[in-house]
């Protein structure tokens, strides 16, 4: 008599048991390291992708989970590689089922809610693109839930990590959480000049945006050396008001294909900025550190441009990273032929 076939549920149960058994082989120290890495990984994911209103996630997020797992230093161990193998299978199955969702979602909302992109053949393409971006800006303020594009009023960044040494006198190591940025509603797109390189099927250009006023708030945990050899360590809350803030950007895109659909991804991005004025308020979580927080706040407020220029390399690197994050969230859901039609 032939042996009865086991159900898929039984296979899934066996796989779950294997993962549990693999996990149980680890020492308590290894498990604690993994827990810390997992918290950092999920924080990074939340900084890039967010869940839909119904609690589901998209295929890009699952793929990013896999990429983060592969970055873990313990990944080379065979048992972790085996765990990731199950994740790879889950990603593949999910992607096969939902690969067309973003394109269908785009087509379902583009006609009614999004401005029509400019055609490559438009003789005044750059002028047309500038008008398109200004119209698209208003749509971004409340986000586009169907396309998984977050709200930009304010823009929310759950977590961001800074670890940078400028020179012997200035270094910053910080974890920024629950960051919110206001000002996109009054942002002015001053210019957008695009250059096509049809021979490489790519796109490059430059742009400038101006913020008459912008406001930021976030929670921080920082160790910094800015004013002397002794590092300052503190955790607390920061609120800042910026004025006459100009951002210049040079960028290039490159195409990539995802399951038969071509998209653009940001290849290179260089950002520079100029600050007119600023006022900052730091509130320490520890009463005994409030004196230090007040000193730093007053130092910044006495001459915001001086501080801005001192930490500019850090701000430039962080700005480029955040700009890439914001742009990629939009590019990842709009097919290339819809973004730049013939």
TrEMBL record:
GO terms for cellular component: extracellular space. Residues 19-46 form a coiled coil. It comes from Ignelater luminosus. This is Uncharacterized protein. It comes from the Eukaryota. Keywords: Coiled coil. InterPro entries: Haemolymph_juvenile_hormone-bd, To_sf.
